[in-house]
Every structure is written in structure tokens, then in C-alpha cells.
Amino acid sequence: MWCDAVQLQTDKSMKGSPILCPKNFKIKDISKAGKGFTLIEILVAVTIIGLIFSIGYVSFREYSRRQTVVSVTRAIKSDIRLAQQNAISGKKPAGCVTDLDAYSASFSEANNSYTVGAVCGGITIEEKTVELPSGVTMTAPSINPLIFYSVGRGTNIAVGGIIITISQPASSYSQTVEMGPGGEIK
Known about the structure:
Elements: H1 5-10, H2 39-89, E1 100-108, E2 113-120, E3 123-131, E4 137-139, E5 146-149, E6 162-168, E7 173-179
């Protein structure tokens, strides 16, 4: 059996000629030693990565659903406040040729949407219609539509106020929009 190149370099007494190795000497195949992973190691690593990914995905999906409900709640509050502000300031939309009576916000559970508009001479001029994202539901308030009378004459909301609940049944997460008789929105 012939020895490897490292042994040839260390033995200077036999310049250029190969050295015979003893019979019990084993040459280690350096090209295969320590390279690669066993099948078990790969399977364990893939399993751990899969578990971490699945836990992260479930958490992200739940977070995403909560954020959808939060953003819809903010949008409803914002649109109600805009209708309220426009009514208080007496802002007439284009197409309103008579006196401005009020602004209204009406909610439709069947269509899963709401509409904000101005009431001019008894006729509602729609300014904005919003459909809620799929998977998000809303309960309409007991008083529907909500009316904000022009020039600070109040609302049609009775004592005790109203509550609009926005939820996502898939995550059982919900938020509410509460409004008192004075027009305060929470």
C-alpha cells in the first residue's frame, strides 16, 4: 500500500521515491470525511423548520385578521366623524341645490356595507359607499340611518346611544363603535 503525499513530504531520506506503508497502516480517505449530512440530520432539520414556519404562519394569519377589523373600525369612525363635521359646518355637496338638512350614515348588514351622504330637501345625495372586506361583518345600529342635522342641531340618536359591532367570525375578534346622543364617538 502506498502512503499519502503528506508522509512523502515528511520523509526526506527517500527523495522522490514512494514510501511503502506498514501493513496495519490505514489511509484515511480525506475527500469523503466530514462532508455532507446524514438523512436523519436532514429530516430533523426540515421537521424543525416546518414546525417553526407553521407556528409563525398561524400567528401571522391571526394578526392579519385582527388588523383588518381594526382598520375597518377606524374607517367607520372616520367616515362618521366626517359626516358629523360636514353637517356642523353646513358644507353642501355638489348636486345639493336646496338647503342642507343633514348628513346621514346608513348601514346595511345584508350588503355588508355603509353609505355616507348629505340630505338636501329630503333627498339623500350619496357621497361615499364602502363595502367591508370579505370575512368582516358588522351589526347595524338600532337607529339606522344615523342623522347629523346641519349647523349643530344635534342628532337622531336617543339617550343610551348606539353601538356598531365589527367582527371577523373566523378569528372571533371584534371591536365596537359607540356613539352617544350628543354625537361623541368612541
